[in-house]
Amino acid sequence: MSGIFSRVTHIGVHASTPPLDAKYIVLLNSSILVVFAISFSSNLGTIAMGLNTPLAYISLGYQGSILMLILLVALGRLTMARSLFVLLSILFVATNAFLEGKDIAFHLYMLPVILLSYFLFPPKEQNIAIAFVVAGLAIFTGLEFWFLNHDSILPIEAPEAVIRTSKMTIYVGLGVMVAGFGYYIRSTYLRAEESLEAERTRSDALLLNILPAEIAARLKNRETYIADRFDEAAILFADLVNFTVVADRLPPESVVALLNEIFSEFDDAIAALGLEKIKTVGDAYFVAGGLPAEDPDGLRKIAELAITMQSIMRQKYSDQFQIRIGIHFGPVVAGVIGKNKFVYDLWGDSVNLASRMESHGIPGEIQVSPVVREVLGNRFQFESRGSLEIKGKGAMETFLLKGRLD
Fold first, then answer.
1. Element housing 39 (H / E)
2. Rounded distance, CA 23 to CA 8, Å?
3. How far is CA 393 from CA 145, 331, 366, 387, 390, in A?
4. How far is residue 46's CA from residue 366's CA, in Å, rounded to a whole number?
């Protein structure tokens, strides 16, 4: 039975139907079926008790008419189907209430019709919904005033007990409709909350893939400018030597897959050490330690990362290419720039010098500045390269980080 109901309520919904439009179509079809079921079952009781047979036939006409509206839905005439459903419902309630009078209280059915008008029409058709709401309220109010001075036109010729039963049927029907509306509103609200939470989770995950958690939190708190100075930042640059030559011999998918495989392993090592990946540019890799949250152990972690990266390259990729790494330690400015595709980036002389350590380095080695050697000298093994001419710095003694001291 539920399968049949589902198929009928989805008449007019196709694979290409946008989700929002599909929701309104299903709601319209469901409303037609529910109203038909309540009205038809109530009408059968009315006919069985022999009450106001002319009104029973009016009801049958209404029920058949709204059921035929599903054909309009199937043809894609959605606005017409929605409008006719509400219009026929208003006219049906008004006619029955006008003829039966106040004793049966049939005009109370106008209230769920008014409420339903708000939900049946999508945002682009809200003017139609408002027009029906105003019309429904006006007719409901008019009937209330009419009942003050007028009796029923078609009085019910039946015992008081039968009239009470008929009235009870109307109240039960109203109760079912109110309960149905309440369930729909609640379920729609809960689905919207779940959808919003899922979207928020996806957005947060995407943001955390772009920015450090601390920076993302500050942006979500509407901090306009993100700009910080760190006096002790550890900077690492790495470059895959001859990757361009290798890439020229491979199809595009293989190039991306290979680079993704290598950098994903680097990403795992960064996550394990609690460092911050700044960005990749082509086959170059940029990492920082000691920020965005200050960490006095940041330089040591950067050194550990460099050793791990070289180990990964030697163990898995030495037959293809090597990696050249440079490290420096010093003050930087960090912040977020841009409106579109914004990034968390670093600036300053320390960044430039770390880049020079990499570009003037040796494939398969980790070249560091004198300050790195000075800070880590008692925990790692270093080898002097002597004095090198560093662009923008002149002559400078540099060192190769060879490994940990036992």
1. helix 19-49
2. 14
3. 94, 16, 19, 12, 5
4. 92
Angle at 18 between CA 15 and CA 121, to 5 degrees: 125
Domains of the chain from N-terminus onward: 2-205 (no CATH), 213-404 (3.30.70.1230)
Please, which residues bridge with residue 340 across strands? none
Burial 40-54 (b: 16+ CB within 10 A, else e): eebbeebbebebbee
CA distance 89 to 106: 12
Write down the pLDDT at residue 97. 82
Calpha distance 315→313 (Å, rounded): 6
| Percent of the chain whose predicted confidence (pLDDT) is above 90 | 19
pTM metric for this prediction: 0.57
Helix (H) or strand (E) holding 331: strand 322-337
Residue pointed to by tokens 């670093």: 346
**Residue 151: φ, ψ to 5°:** -95, 180
In whole angstroms, what is the distance from residue 109 CA to residue 87 CA? 13
Q: Which residues of the chain have pLDDT under 50?
A: none
The contacts found for 146-154 with CB under 8 angstroms, 24 or more apart, are: 146/98, 147/101, 147/102, 147/107, 150/101, 151/101, 152/99, 152/100, 152/101, 152/102, 152/103, 153/98, 153/99, 153/101, 154/52, 154/54, 154/55, 154/99, 154/100
Residue 275 CA, chain-centre distance (Å), reads 29
Using CB atoms within 10 A of its CB, is residue 275 exposed (0-12), middle (13-18) or buried (19+)?
buried
Judge whether 350 and 328 are in contact, CB under 8 Å.
yes
CA distance 149 to 105: 15
Provide the Cα torsion 130, 135, 141, 146; round to 10°: 180
Question: Is residue 292 reached through a cis peptide bond, with omega within 30 degrees of 0 on the bond before it?
Answer: yes
Q: Can you give the length of the chain in residues?
A: 406
